[in-house]
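Write out the 3D structure for:
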Amino acid sequence: MSTKIKGAEYPLSKIFSSDFDYEIPSYQRPYAWTEDEAGELFDDLYDFYIAEDEEEQYFLGSIVLVKEEDKPLSEVIDGQQRLTTLTILLAAITSKLTGESKNDFKNYIIEPGRISQGLASKPRVHIRKRDNDFFKKYIQGLDFNGLFALDADIQDTEAKMNIIKNAKLLMGRINDKFATEDDIISFGVYLVQRCFLVAVSTPTRQAAFRIFSVMNSRGMSLLATDIIKADIIGSIRESWHDKYNNKWEEMEVELGRSGFNDLFGHIRMVIAKTKAKKALQDEFYSIVFPNTNGKDISENDAVNFIDNTLEPYSEAYRVIKNCDYVSSSGSDRVNDILHWLNRIDNSDWVPVAMHYYVKHHDDSVIMDKFLRRLERIAAYMRATSYDVTHRIERYAKILADIDTCAGADLGTAIELTDEEKSKFISELNSNMYTMTAKKRNYLILRLDSFVSNHAATYDTKIFTIEHVLPQTVSEGSKWEMWWPNEDERKEWVHKIGNLLPLAKRTNSEAQNYDFDKKKDKYFRGKSGVTAYALTTQVLSESEWKPETVKRRQSELIDVYKKNWDLK
């Protein structure tokens, strides 16, 4: 007997209605979207909103639910991050409204209830139990003043921290983009009427997990490049099909289907120098073949694209992602910096590196110089939390400079201004431990590579960041004797001067060790040494007092300044 599966596309006005009562089960991971994902969601929605095409709809993806037909209870198997973030956005919009408009939009957050239909008033989305009361009070209760008075970095769960930070970001975006209440209402109307989610539901959890697994299997579905290939190869005379089909497939095999599909998005960026506003196959033809009518590609354009665009950029992408630059001299330095670029947790820099490689790969000296500048600005934008829209705007300017600058001239867009250098240094001097894990880990590992003079290699399968001065100081301990001022402990405990990378799992007991025991039992490896230069430095210290950390902080910031040329 087959399990009934239902799938349909709904506007957000239907998604957030009495037809659905969303429960995030306790086995799901906590709310994990950061300001990066929340900011990207808003920017995509806003870019589509201002495009002024009232005929088009914005597709937000799909959610998978355990749900019986005609019953609202919906256990969320996939989609909690979007549903939670959209609830925060709708709540932020509602909090800015007054009168009937506010009451109307509040209905998307709270089921108002109807006695005649047996509907009780309650929130439409219930997140994991541990965080739900917090979410209900501040977000669904529209208490943004209370929420923004809280310190995100000291919350007892990562989900609460993300809720606070994302709410601040989304409220900031609304304040920046909309001058009047009518403007906010207009955006809200667009959001609930023209933005759609596909809800796939089945009455059994087993079937829902199977659907989720199938939907997330890579390489099984038709990709944008499959559609583009049919159009481009189809434009070439039949006697040439084998030649160009073989070229195409060799590149696809070498990069893998997913990588090959990403390559086309990067090529689109190199040419258009703007953030994508539609799906790849919807934008690709008009950008790459601007003289064509839709998909009516000439044979000459098709052949030229494969020979002079796809092949060289495919090689560039392979070299960059595999750190496989080859030169008679200097290749080690280039591949080293490519390794660090590939540790950046976004790929927005890739089209820039590809474009420069295609134009200058024969000169290892300027390749090395350019990529080091590129890694610096990528690290700067990551450290200072540039959202994806502003990252792409900056990379677009660098792409334009590549087109116009000659020889060793890198242009101005890739350089940091004095103000940006100061901002970068300020961020490095801040509480690094409270940054998102990916940002923090990059900055600390990069610092370790600078300290080791680029000699270290890193296997980060097991990688933790540890405090030397513990976060909690026991009464009567040597730590309390060395650090008697609690405010001073709070000021320095999370800074880079007090942090160490370790190649071992977190040991909760270690935070109670005194300094000598920490060094001997925890900071050293089994062989008596450590894999990290930063940790080796600390092993030579005899005490860990405020003046030790302050000195070390200053020294490490100077290492950043020297190696990233921030002076």
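The chain has a mean pLDDT of 89.
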